[in-house]
Write a structure and sequence with these properties.
Radius of gyration: 25 Å
Strand content: 35-45%
Oligomer: single chain
Order of helices and strands: HEEEEEEEEEEEEEEEEH
Mean pLDDT: 75
Distance between the termini: 104 Å
Length: 205
């Protein structure tokens, strides 16, 4: 009876930590909507705030959901007609956000996730969309040793947000910008003027 009571109390404590943590851990996207041409890779920048007393370890980042019949799914599960979603942190062994801190993706830093647009992706079609989710666990830093990262005190799943609401991330394939004939003509005229002026300066010397 006592053993069962202790087990139940432990489970309730872990559940309480997990519920509390959800309110104190927020994943925000800088922008949910990305645009790119065939053969390019686009990425989602983010901020991940961990306002708990525990270290946060990111287990995985993945995409979930479909719209217009075109799935946004991760690379391990396959690819959509437009390209492939990848967890940017999987290849570097995960992400750790210390207690009471915020990790921010900035220009040149590793993003939250990327989407490789296929070379054959048709431009101008429906966007590939889905919710970006993040699985994490909370570790008590006070129990960490040289051989162990510490005791797990909770875990959960976050849905990336934008402007205070769950974000529907999207990737839209655009056409490569091809200059119009008039642009080429203007460029040729400009180069001609520059060449003429340079020739005149040389003669003047």
């Amino acid at each position: 009876m006592i053993k069962r009571l202790i087990t139940t109390t432990t489970l309730l404590a872990l559940l309480l930590v997990s519920v509390t943590a959800q309110a104190d851990i927020v994943l925000n996207l800088s922008s949910p909507d990305l645009f790119g041409t065939p053969g390019t890779t686009v990425s989602w920048d983010f901020s991940l705030a961990n306002n708990t007393a525990y270290d946060l370890y990111v287990n995985s980042v993945y995409a979930d959901g479909t719209l217009y019949g075109v799935p946004l799914i991760d690379g391990s599960g396959g690819a959509s007609a437009l390209g492939t979603f990848w967890d940017a942190y999987f290849s570097v062994g995960g992400l750790v956000v210390p207690a009471n801190s915020t990790t921010l993706s900035i220009l040149g830093a590793l993003p939250l996730a990327t989407f490789e647009i296929s070379n054959s992706a048709p431009a101008g079609g429906p966007a590939v969309t889905g919710a970006i989710k993040l699985d994490y666990m909370l570790i008590d830093p006070a129990t960490a040793t040289q051989d162990s990262i510490g005791d797990t005190v909770g875990s959960g799943t976050l849905i990336a947000q934008y402007n205070g609401a769950d974000a529907l991330a999207s990737v839209t394939v655009t056409s490569a910008v091809v200059p119009e004939p008039s642009t080429y003509a203007l460029l040729c005229i400009s180069l001609g003027v520059v060449g003429f002026a340079r020739r005149k300066m040389v003669k003047g010397e």
